[in-house]
Amino acid sequence: MRAMRLLKWKSDPEIVEVDTPRPGPGQVVIKVGGAGACHSDLHLLHDFDESSPLAWGPPFTLGHENAGWVHELGEGVSGLEVGQAVAVYGPWGCGTCDRCQLGMETYCENIAGAPVPGGGGGLGLDGGMAEFMLVPQARQLLPLPEGLDPVRAAPLTDAGLTPYHAVRRSWAKLAPGSTAVVIGVGGLGHVGVQILKATTATRVIAVDNRDEALQLAEECGADQMVRSGPEAAKQIRQATGGHGADVVLDFVGVDATLALGAAATRSMGDLTIVGIGGGTLPLSFFSVPYEVSIQTTYWGSRPELAEVLNLGARGLVRPKISTFPLAEGPAVYERMHKGGLQGRAVIVP
After folding, report:
1. What is the pTM of this model?
2. Distance, CA of 190 to CA of 212 (rounded, Å)
3. Domain range spanning residue 343?
4. What is the pLDDT of residue 197?
């Protein structure tokens, strides 16, 4: 079968022929219906090498946002049927530690017992940018709700799940009368706007430096658009009666956006860093308003993915997607690197 693989660090992905996977006991092979192209993959292509703090490396098939149909069941697998539409929960932990028992396999504390330490399909093991994909444990597959097809479900497994987890943990601070700020209206940020509008009564302010991104934010339901720059924090505080935002979600994570988040967050608010832009935020007693909670998040839990898929099936969360055949996959990453894609690109093998 054909697959788009990263063959070595600091190289472009290549379409190559590989063996079609067969499932062992407890495993499942799916026929891939859609595989999302994530901006974080660019870091795999350009920023990592043998000295990077990862316990895995190439070669492997890209694609950690995946959905499709059950193709073949391994011995002992129950609860799934051949032909059933499913989404893949991307982070693969040991399945038995405290965090995995909660469904938070992103934070597995027994990485030696995981299929690949700290990774998953498309992150050290073969992902979904291929005709077929091997899933090592049946628990990592969630049946798709009626009305949700694999192409639209694929980006929900990361571009939906990641902002959903970040928003969900701040629900208590997003009551009517509150304000949430979304910094960066890209592949994750535009879905974050939709999730805020679908699950809370908060007012949403979207921040970006691109006209097309601010237009997308408005289409997704944002109440106010602010262009990033020296006046952005002032405008956010003016829009909130001088208080600042109860929750700020930074989907970029560079120095400038982190500084904006710190300047725009209300006392006792949440500043959640989702983007992996590599920025840093100096922290001292007076550098942020009192009792601001600052946290990073990574992906989300299996139970949360079920909730995201429900929102997607009901049409409450619909990522803006563009579809491409597998043969155009390398060009998709090149366009993404140049900033030429809006929303989420989905590879359809």
Report:
1. 0.95
2. 11
3. 2-158+300-348
4. 98
